Each structure stands twice: as structure tokens, then as C-alpha cells.
TrEMBL record:
Belongs to the Orn/Lys/Arg decarboxylase class-II family. One of its GO terms (molecular function) is ornithine decarboxylase activity. Gene3D superfamilies: Alanine racemase (3.20.20.10), Lyase, Ornithine Decarboxylase, Chain A, domain 1 (2.40.37.10). This is ornithine decarboxylase. The active site is at C360 (proton donor). InterPro entries: Ala_racemase/Decarboxylase_C, De-COase2_C, De-COase2_CS, De-COase2_N, De-COase2_pyr-phos_BS, Orn/DAP/Arg_de-COase, Orn_de-COase, PLP-binding_barrel. It comes from the Eukaryota. Residues 40-387 form the Orn/DAP/Arg decarboxylase 2 C-terminal domain.
Length: 461
């Protein structure tokens, strides 16, 4: 049973047959005659629920501890808390965020191997015991600030085939692992297991197999030294959208046999993971508005590029950029592409276009080149799969505010979530085909409602 006593967040139900995209269109229509066309998100919480079912279907032995850093929106954290997920927190503030909504400390892992002493003490004072480390200095800090901690040794992986590498910064080698285990013994600390992260955008699932096998070696070393090793943490890096080289199930199909080989069910080892992007990427769609435009004629640009179709290129300036939501381009190596909100006419010509953010910085470019029909100031572009490492790291550089987020969820998804919250994850729910769930919803309070379709509500998850 998961019960939480916390503040509320708002979303609006949508009647059957409506999708999150319908809401987006509806919201755009509402502001069509005004000049007030700020960028905004529609986030489908039902999509998060759907991911949760997909997770347990693909990785039945692995409990997800959501990586809060990926998207720390309260609605996301509360939804996952209601579903019974654990949380990977990187800092005191993330621990506070999760604990403030009623998540018990046992469902938190402080998964940052290099922590400030005051923040280790905060974890100790608030009952958070599981934490990762990868160095001797960290062990000595923990011995002083949190001697009862349940430590998880983070090992390095071969993340050379990942888009975002993490083992350049974190993770002990196997040789160092032995020394660290010995040092922990001397310091009378408790090591309970091993963690790793294969990097994000991993293109080779065998990296997981190697990391799981390395973790086994470290488990054996720990057991030999007298530790009760019982936790394996397989980290994050699971894709959150379908536009990737390696699909989620292609990875999990490789992970499961490796878990069964190195950590068989009867070993009694608890297995957790730290998925971030997996849960949130596809739930968020961003709508941006064109605020300015330049037409560059071929003779002006001096370009010989045969691809400068129709004699001109177009530059669009939109009201969110790399200092805002599109920081994912810089920090997360994301490649984004726009979807046109207005369907183009079949005979409409295309132009080579670039898309820029609203700030005065030349770095603020979202798309270098994309071929599309000509658009006008006031038109909208949509960007899908924008839930991961977007809102979490967005700044207000140049005074541009972060887009509002409008949360939506269908009634069946909501009912299912309530059922899980009250009764836990039930076998028949796991068997239910969630792909048939109408996952569309309505929008947050503060926006006018379409009386025929939406009923706004404030719900305490
Ligand atoms: C320790 C740790 N765990 C989990 C994650 C989440 O990774 P992803 O969003 O790729 O699943 C990260 C991301 O940087 C991380 O550093």
C-alpha cells in the first residue's frame, strides 16, 4: 500500500476518445486570436503509467528507482511514488523533494558517489541509508558522517559505445574495488552491494552483460571479506522513446539472461535500477511558437548548396531554446526535430530551414537544417519526446521563462493508478494490455476548459 499525505497537483481528465495531442491542439486554438502565445508542454501522466507496466513486463526481477535528476517535476515524482517506484536521488534537495511527498527512506538510494559531507549528514538524519561510493575518501567521509550507511560500490563500465558517458567520472575498477572493500572493512562500514551505469544512449547491450558479470566478481570479493552482499543496482540508460538505435526490449532481452546467469532468482539478491529518461521522455510534448523569421535569398547567402531548394532558406526564431528546454541538445546530446502543428497542403513546396531559440546568443540554435513548408510568425511547431533532461536543467537566461506544463491523464489510467496505490501491483493488472489504455487527458487548471471534453481536477496522488 502506498499512501501519501502531500500537496496536490492539478490535471484534467479527458473524456474517452481524446488524446494528449487533441489537448495540445485545443490549447493552441484557444490562443489563436491573441498575441499571448507562450511555449508550453502537455505531459501525459498516463504515458508514465504505461511505461511502468512495460518495465515490469520486460524486467520482472528489477525494481525501478526513478532517477529524479532526469525530470524533477512534482507531478512526475508523485505519480511514480503512487505507483510504488523507488527513487535515485543525487542531492539533499532531491531527497527532500521525494521525502516531502511521503516516500519512506527505504525507497530512496542516494546514488551520487561523490557527496558533500553536510548532505551525507542530511541523509543520515533523515533515515536514508543506501548510498553509492567509488573512492576511499568517500568511505572516510561516510565513516564520519553516516557510519550506519548501507553502502553500494559503484563500478566502472565500458561505456565507450554510449552517447552520454559516465564512467569517465564515476566507478571503480575491479582492482580498486577489492582495495575499497578491504578499506571499508577496516572502517567497520557495511557494504551491501554493487551498482553501475552503462552510460545513456548505449548502443551495445553487451555492455550490460559485462557490467553484470563484473558486479558478480565484486559480490564474490565482498562475500569473501565477510560482507552480506544482497543488492545489485543496474543503473539507468534505458531509452524513453522509440526513435533510438537500440529499443528498450532489445536491451532487456539481453539483461534478463545475464541476471539469471550471474544472480539467479534463488540467490535472494535484490535487483534495482535507476531509470530516468525511460519513464519521462515520451510523456512530454513541447509546443513552441514562431516569434520571428528571416528569409535568406540564395544570392544573399552566396551558397552553392544544391539543397537550397526553391532559391531561399528560412530562419525561424521560436520562444524556447537551448538555454531553456532545449538544453538537452547541449547537455544530453539530443537531436530534436519539429513536427508541424498545421498539416501542410499536399502541393506545398519545402525550404531548407534552421530553427533558433529566443536569446541573443548565437549558440542558441535548436535545429541546423530541416526541410519543411514555409511557416509564418505566430505558427506553432511541436517537439515530441521532450520529458528527459529538459525542464530539469532549463534556465531563465535573458529573462525567458520556462514553459508551463499542463498535465493530463485519462480516467482509466487514473483509476488503474489508484488501484495500484491502494493494493500494490497486482498480477491481473500486469497482464492487462495497457497499450489499449486511452492515455489522453485534459489540461491543468488555470486554462479555460472545453465543456464537452474536459473536467479539471486537483488530485492528491
Ligand atoms: C547515477 C545515475 N543513475 C541514473 C541516471 C539516469 O540515467 P538515464 O536517464 O539515462 O536512465 C543517471 C544519469 O545521469 C545517473 O547519473
Amino acid at each position: 500500500m502506498n499512501s501519501f499525505s502531500n500537496e496536490e497537483f492539478d490535471f484534467t481528465f479527458l473524456d474517452e476518445g481524446f488524446t494528449a495531442k487533441d489537448i495540445l491542439d485545443q490549447k493552441i486554438n484557444e490562443v489563436s486570436s491573441s498575441d499571448d502565445k507562450d511555449a508550453f508542454y502537455v505531459a501525459d501522466l498516463g504515458d508514465v503509467l504505461k511505461k511502468h507496466f512495460r518495465w515490469y513486463k520486460a524486467l520482472p526481477r528489477v525494481t525501478p528507482f526513478y532517477a529524479v535528476k532526469c525530470n524533477d517535476s512534482k507531478a512526475i515524482v508523485k505519480t511514480l511514488a503512487a505507483l510504488g517506484a523507488g527513487f535515485d536521488c543525487a542531492s539533499k534537495t532531491e531527497i527532500q523533494l521525494v521525502q516531502n511527498i511521503g516516500v519512506p527512506p527505504e525507497r530512496i538510494i542516494y546514488a551520487n558517489p561523490c557527496k558533500q559531507i553536510s548532505q551525507i549528514k542530511h541523509a543520515a538524519n533523515n533515515g536514508v541509508q543506501m548510498m553509492t561510493f567509488d573512492s576511499e575518501v568517500e568511505l572516510m567521509k561516510v565513516a564520519r558522517a553516516h557510519p550506519k550507511a548501507k553502502l553500494v560500490l559503484r563500478i566502472a563500465t565500458d561505456d565507450s559505445k554510449a552517447v552520454c558517458r559516465l564512467s569517465v567520472k564515476f566507478g571503480a575498477t575491479l582492482k580498486t574495488s577489492r582495495l575499497l572493500l578491504e578499506r571499508a572493512k577496516e572502517l567497520d562500514l557495511d557494504i551491501i552491494g554493487v551498482s553501475f551505469h552503462v552510460g545513456s544512449g548505449c548502443t551495445d547491450p553487451e555492455t550490460f552483460v559485462q557490467a553484470i558479470s563484473d558486479a558478480r566478481c565484486v559480490f564474490d570479493m565482498g562475500t569473501e571479506l565477510g560482507f552480506s552482499m544482497h543488492l545489485l543496482d543496474i543503473g539507468g540508460g534505458f531509452p524513453g522513446s522509440e526513435d533510438v538505435k537500440l529499443k528498450f526490449e532489445e536491451i532487456t532481452n539481453v539483461i534478463n539472461p545475464a541476471l539469471d546467469k550471474y544472480f539467479p532468482c534463488d540467490s535472494g539478491i535484490r535487483i534495482i535500477a535507476e531509470p530516468g529518461r525511460y519513464y519521462v521522455a515520451s510523456a512530454f510534448t513541447l509546443a513552441v511558437n514562431i516569434i520571428a523569421k528571416k528569409v535568406v535569398l540564395k544570392e544573399q547567402s552566396g551558397s552553392d548548396d544544391e539543397d537550397d531548394i526553391n532559391g531561399k532558406t528560412l530562419m525561424y526564431y521560436v520562444n524556447d531554446g537551448v538555454y531553456g528546454s532545449f538544453n538537452c541538445i547541449l547537455y544530453d546530446h539530443a537531436h530534436v526535430k519539429p513536427v508541424l502543428q498545421k498539416r501542410p497542403k499536399p502541393d506545398e513546396g519545402c525550404y531548407s530551414c534552421s530553427i533558433w531559440g529566443p536569446t541573443c546568443d548565437g549558440l542558441d540554435r535548436i535545429v541546423e537544417r530541416f526541410d519543411m513548408p514555409e511557416l509564418q510568425v505566430g505558427d506553432w511547431m511541436l517537439f515530441e519526446n521532450m520529458g528527459a533532461y529538459t525542464v530539469a536543467a532549463a534556465s531563465t537566461f535573458n529573462g525567458f521563462q520556462r514553459p508551463a506544463i499542463h498535465y493530463v491523464m485519462s480516467r482509466p489510467a487514473w483509476q488503474l493508478m489508484q488501484q495500484i496505490k491502494e493494493q500494490g501491483f497486482l498480477a491481473e493488472e500486469e497482464e492487462q494490455d495497457v497499450s489499449t489504455l486511452p492515455l489522453s487527458c485534459a489540461w491543468e487548471s488555470g486554462i479555460e476548459h472545453h465543456p464537452a471534453t474536459c473536467a479539471s481536477t486537483s488530485i492528491n496522488v
